[in-house]
Design goal:
It is an enzyme of class 7 (translocase). The chain is an alpha/beta fold and 384 residues long. It folds into two domains: 219 residues, no CATH class; 78 residues, no CATH class. The chain has 13 helices and twelve strands. The C terminus is likely disordered. Bound molecules: adenosine-5'-triphosphate (ATP) and nickel (II) ion.
């Protein structure tokens, strides 16, 4: 039996009241984050990843947003029951956020050192001198060269990658139990991305924290996740240990996502069709209009419940083909469990074929596609 998770989200529903109707951005999401664990939420743009992460500490603007239902239990305490004031105290103390654009986390008119000192002193009664020493130490630990000298620099004097390091130092200032990082590397160029990811990995161990990493990039997931939550149109399609999900992707959506990874499936694949309307989603499984395995049962009623994959309660999938008495081989193909790729896995079913898991090198290509390369110049300035 595993210990009680640090964070436990149950049936979270977050909606936005808009002129076009009610947007069910997060529609019944459940997952846990264990202590010291990295959980990745992955899914296409618009699937509800950010809204999930921001619902945890109530960063959702209300109105138009509203956390309509669900439990968010953090270290034994239901956050949805806390006052705004109590939650504000928790945010940036025990739970910290890092965002895609570090610019937003830093105030342009103050030096980075001063901002980290303020973050420390806001949550802890320490002298200015002690806070200053800690801030320099934090800058040093997130890999800012000559931290003592750079303490007095302003945000604009740092490159994109260095700025993100500073915002991570700010997030760590209060020694949080949970760090929620929403696409923290997407705005950075590829080499810097990898540095930031491995930095987060190192810091997690060093600070003994849990990390919720939000990304649309399965390559990143393969590198850092312990567990994965695959979201689509506000719903969780599949979740489980990273090894299980990569080795035995069970929802057709997960399989389609993995097929888009170079080195798996046919690599160049993209998923046909697009996300359904956020105000008027289809009945049944939200993915059914794009699913090659859809049958009548997929088109009616609610999103299917979570079914255990091969009797494993830690690996669940929301797909009718996995209901008791169902036939998952419809999705997986006759006993072939690795990848969805008939194209790749000709080795017949032991699930450890050439295209199988955790082939992280492939991720570079995927990531490179979605990026600009402006970061590298800025980084050169940094060293100047
Ligand atoms: N303030 C808002 N008002 C109305 N709808 C919103 C608002 N914020 C988010 N949404 C909607 O909620 C849904 C989920 O958005 P969210 O930003 O969580 O997606 P995401 O998975 O993080 O996507 P991305 O990968 O692009 O960041 C989308 O349909 C989005 O349009
Ligand atoms: Ni997002």
């Amino acid at each position: 039996m595993s210990a009680e998770p640090l964070l436990s989200i149950r049936d979270l529903r977050t909606v936005f009241h808009t002129d076009d109707g009610l947007v069910r951005a997060v529609d019944g999401v459940s997952f846990d984050i264990g202590r010291g664990e990295t959980v990745c939420i992955v899914g296409e743009s618009g699937s509800g990843k950010t809204v999930t992460g921001e619902s945890i500490t109530r960063l959702i603007r209300t109105p138009p947003g509203e956390i309509a239902a669900g439990e968010i239990v953090f270290d034994g305490q239901d956050l949805t029951a806390l006052s705004d004031e109590a939650l504000r105290a928790l945010r940036g103390d025990r739970i910290a956020h890092v965002f895609q654009n570090p610019q937003g986390a830093l105030n342009p008119v103050y030096t980075v050192g001063w901002q980290i000192v303020e973050a420390i002193r806001l949550h802890e009664d320490v002298s200015k001198g002690a806070a200053r020493d800690r801030a320099v130490d934090l800058l040093d630990r997130v890999g800012i060269p000559e931290a003592t000298r750079r303490f007095d620099d302003y945000p604009h004097e740092f490159s994109g990658g260095m700025k993100q390091r500073v915002s991570i130092a700010m997030a760590l200032a209060t020694n949080p139990d949970l760090l929620i990082a929403d696409e923290p590397t997407t705005a950075l160029d590829v080499t810097i991305q990898n540095q930031i990811l491995s930095l987060l990995d190192d810091l997690q161990t060093e600070f003994d924290m849990s990390v919720l990493l939000i990304t649309h990039d399965l390559g990143v997931v393969a590198e850092v996740a312990d567990r994965v939550v695959v979201m689509y149109a506000g719903k969780v399609m599949e979740r489980g240990g990273v090894f299980d999900v990569f080795e035995q992707p069970s929802h057709p959506y997960t399989r389609a996502l993995l097929d888009c990874l170079p080195g798996r499936g046919d690599g160049a694949a993209s998923i046909g069709g697009r996300l359904p309307s956020s105000t008027d989603p289809p009945a049944g499984c939200r993915f059914h209009p794009r699913c090659e395995h859809a049958v009548d049962a997929c088109r009616e009623g609610e999103q299917p419940p979570d079914y255990a994959v091969d009797g494993d309660d830690d690996h669940v999938v929301s797909c009718v083909h996995y209901e008791p008495g169902g036939d998952p081989s419809v999705v997986r193909g006759g006993g072939d469990d690795a990848g969805s790729g008939d194209a790749v896995d000709d080795d017949g079913g032991d699930g450890r074929g050439s295209g199988a898991v955790g082939t992280p090198p492939a991720d570079r290509t995927l990531r490179a596609e979605s990026l600009g390369d402006d970061g590298s110049d800025a980084d050169r300035e940094d060293r100047a």
